[in-house]
What we know:
Number of strands: 4
CATH architecture: Roll
Radius of gyration: 14 Å
Mean pLDDT: 79
Strand content: 25-35%
Number of helices: 6
Number of domains: 1
Structural class: alpha+beta
CATH class: Alpha Beta
Low-confidence stretches: 1-13, 22-32
Amino acid sequence: MLPDVMRASSAVTLLAFFALIAAGCGGGPARESPSVDGIAETIADLEEALSERDLGRICDRILSPEARRRAGGEECPRRLARTTRAVEQPRLELVSVTLGRDSALARVRASAGDEPPALDSMRFVVVEGAYRVDSLSSG
Length: 139
């Protein structure tokens, strides 16, 4: 069991995790147009990987190559381990999606533990037919 201070900051820590991938925007052209279902699947996969502490899966299969580079490249799993250590019961809820020709912007309600949720924007790009998280911004 984590001390109260660790639990109280779990939502903040979840947002710190996202800050690792928010350092830049952009991404290469996608091969096909994004769909709401594909984006919802990626968000569900991210939530599950966070819950299971499967940080390699996040770095290798959920983040875009550019987001992975921004999150430390080969060091990505270790860097995420430091920022997600105190995250308990992460929850990601898809609120809305704006589809573009080669990317999408999703509004996501992120929370952890008993903390109130925060609304974030996640940018997705298509990489080898899968929808990957490319960047995130709070608010």
